[in-house]
Amino acid sequence: MSQSDTNILADEAYFSHTRPDAISFDANSADGIFGVVHDLGNLIQVATSALNMISRSPDIEMGPTLLPIFASARISLQRAGTLVQQTMRLASDGNAAAEPVDIGACLVEIEALAKATWDRNIAFEIYASETLPIFRCSRVGLQSAIMNLLLNARDAMPDGGVISIVATAIDDERAAAGIELRISDNGLGMTEDVLRRASDPFFTTKASGLGGLGLPMVNRFVQEARGHLRLESEPGRGTVVTLRLPVEG
After folding, report:
1. How many CB atoms lie within 10 A of CB 180?
2. Handedness of CA 122, 125, 128, 130 (dihedral sign)
């Protein structure tokens, strides 16, 4: 066995004995996100190396049954690696210098992306007030936050439905000037217990796939913007997420 193969097996042994409760994660810290995503990247590298070892082994015949399985596994790992890289960039850009952002234009771009890639049984209703002030933030961070909320809304409507996005200027003498962004769906909704834990890192009700980081990342963006996040939901009646974002006077 080569030294590289020995290192791979050592990595596998390390990760297999790492307890989930030993992982420290702060959803509001870029370091916390970097740490978790970095470990995921390491796991992907271990799995990829293991596949390469098996494919090179003279003891395993890569016949017509195994070849498509290995090809599918490699493609899945490549996609996972791309997701890790994108998440690292998003986490990094969350700390990027703020720039003036036109939220109305930002919503148009996100709607176009979602319509081009999602099932046609998801409809969008978007309204952006013409009097919206310019908001200073990381553009990528804002787009990531909105897209995470849209993905949650989509997943809550397995049979299709309507996602509504309303952006209005806060016109209240008792509150600071700002923008209110409301994203609602008519999906499954959440129980009180699920709603209470919805922003906890890694908490998810999804039966498969990765989950549990979307809302914590949204919450982090809102906190960095010195804004407020409110969740409202009832089983069978959908969910409403409200972001109140202050703007400079």
Report:
1. 21
2. positive
